Amino acid sequence: MALSFIKKVFTFGKEKPAEEQAPEASQTKVLEAEPGPHSHEEHLPLASDPAFPEQLDIAGAAPAADAVEPSEDAEDAAILPAAYQIGDLGVIPLSLLEAEAEAEPETPAKETPTAKTPPSVSSGDQAADEAPVFDASHDEVTDIRPEEISGAAEEGQTVPPQPISLLGGETPGGVAEDAPLRDADGEDASKTQPLLPKGFATTAKTTEAEPIAPYPKLTWFQRLRAGLARTSSQLTGQISALFTKRKLDDDTLQDLEDLLIQADLGVETAMRVTDTLASERYGKDVTGEDVSRIMASEIAKVLKPVAKPLQLDLTHKPHVILVVGVNGTGKTTTIGKLAAKLSGAGLKVMVAAGDTFRAAAIEQLKIWADRTKSEFIGTKLGADAAGLAYDAFEQAKAKKCDVLIIDTAGRLQNKAELMAELEKIVRVLGKLDPDAPHTVLQTLDATTGQNALNQVEIFRNIAGVNGLIMTKLDGTARGGILVAISAKHKLPVYFIGVGEGVDDLEPFEAEDFAHAIAGLGQ
Ligand SMILES: Nc1nc2c(ncn2[C@@H]2O[C@H](COP(=O)(O)OP(=O)(O)OP(=O)(O)O)[C@@H](O)[C@H]2O)c(=O)[nH]1
Asked: CB–CB of 493/303 below 8 Å?
């Protein structure tokens, strides 16, 4: 029966018109079936699912009417396990097998004890009893008894189970060397052949992937340097050009000041640099390197007072961190990264999906919560964010969480609404603890430049921002703006985001940042 089952797999839908043979037709049916004995979930257990073996029994049971059309004989009634029906491969039409069989003489496959041609159909009526059996790891279909496969082995000889092959002609490793896989039109399908899941093999000629040399992971400073390369190379290039064979005079100082302002560093910092340069080198020859050094030192002086660790008052249970900022600046991602750091350090963290305007934001935070083993609280789309914040605070207290981090929406398009919402969140949290939220963090996207200055102004007024995190400093960042913001607002800068990964959040270091902007080493 096993072979007839395979034939069933391979011929499923063959009699139907071409368009109906598309995998979609058979897949949709199963996927859309009501949950039941043959629902999608039951057919696709995780390999590690302990329930997996029992579920496999289903494949040998009578077919569910809603899953597969009943067919003429009992053998044909075997339900195709979903593993065959869905996924990129879909159902393999018999024409493929026939094409392969025709192609066989031209493409002799290696001598192998395994099948060279599709299995012949065995007779027998053990259909229902001999449903395919998957091993626990879902690696192989072991119901294909090699002795039933033509040319497989001598009668009675035991041949270890082989990975199921879409076409014959396997090498012992499971992949034939020469036989091209043909699609229904007789075309070499190797170009379109998808990557096969584990446990499948194909005769399609596959190009061996070049072994990929392990890519050295850049240090965070290298990523910061790379992210700030645009700012720094533009600056240093222009500075070198400015000071080539020129003594330091009023004109060059003015030009330098303009350059620094254009790089978003702000008037105040630009003047600090030119004043220091003038006091040290006026009337003398100056190199671009001299200027870069002085620039780095002056920038570091601006940044040092704001480069502070994020203070957690763990006498509060929880310490509440409200995260605000324009949408897309990296709030949710940063919350995930913070949660990872905190829970990694053994603190109990809860994250609250207060951005109730975007379903994806709630989902995204839930994923981060799972990933960082944090408690999660969310509500339905469009629900009152302040109500969620209140519930989150109560639950975090009840669960004795150390830290509660609340995500918020950031649509500046509707400033009045946003303002009202954030104010309400702060007010409501204050009812449970007059000091809450204990930290109001604003995320700033380093690629936005000057606009970030206005964003701080707005959110500081709305939500009482008392700390900053600049994200996306690994991209084509315009990091100069952080210097201008620091000079103006003097708000602590706790961390910088240097990538999308969970570990890509670094404590803010004034010297390193200043050096990266000036194009100097760490
Ligand atoms: N390269 C890079 N990408 C980042 C960084 N931080 C966040 N991102 C990406 O920026 C995009 C927006 O991040 P989110 O965390 O969704 O931003 P958000 O502020 O929560 O956005 P809304 O939910 O729309 O308000 C995502 O694609 C993040 O992966 C970073 O430090 N570097």
From this structure: yes
Residue 384 has pLDDT above 70, yes or no: yes
Average per-residue pLDDT for the chain: 69
For helices 229-243 and 288-303, give the axis angle rounded to 10 degrees: 130
Tokens coding 292: 């870069």
Å from CA of 327 to ligand 1 middle? 8
pLDDT in tens, 273-330: 999 999 998 988 888 888 999 999 999 999 999 999 999 988 888 999 999 999 899 9
151, 115 Cβ separation under 8 angstroms: yes
DSSP H helices, 39-165, are 40-43, 52-60, 82-85, 94-103
Angstrom CA distances, 476 to 169, 233, 248, 331, 522, stand at: 51, 12, 31, 19, 19
Which two structure tokens, joined as six digits, stand for 328? 């897309």
Binding residues: 325-332, 407-411, 471-474
Distance 407 CA to ligand 1 centre (A): 12
Q: Whose CA is nearest to atom 7 of ligand 1?
A: 330
Ligand 1 atom nearest the C-alpha of 361 is 23
Q: How high is the pLDDT of residue 180? A: 39
How close is the Cα of 330 to the center of ligand 1, in Å?
3
Pairing of strands 349-352, 164-165: unpaired
- Give the other-Cβ count within 10 Å of 448's Cβ: 18
- For ligand 1, atom 14, which residue shows the shortest CA distance? 330
- Tell me which residue of 86, 36, 95, 27 sits closest to 61, measured CA to CA: 36
The encoded tokens of residue 247 equal 């003594």
Q: What is the pLDDT of residues 446-503, one digit of tens each?
A: 988 889 999 999 999 989 999 999 999 887 778 899 999 999 999 999 999 988 999 8
Do 252 and 242 contact (CB within 8 A), yes or no?
yes
**337 closest CA partner among 508, 505, 509:** 505
Burial state string for 133-154 with b = 16 or more CB within 10 A and e = fewer than 16: bbeeebbbbebbbbebbeebbe
Pairing assessment for the beta strands 439-445 and 403-406 based on DSSP bridges = unpaired
Q: Rounded mean pLDDT of 100-125?
A: 39
Domains of the chain: 220-306 (1.20.120.140), 319-511 (3.40.50.300)
Which residue, judged by its Cα, is nearest atom 25 of ligand 1? 327
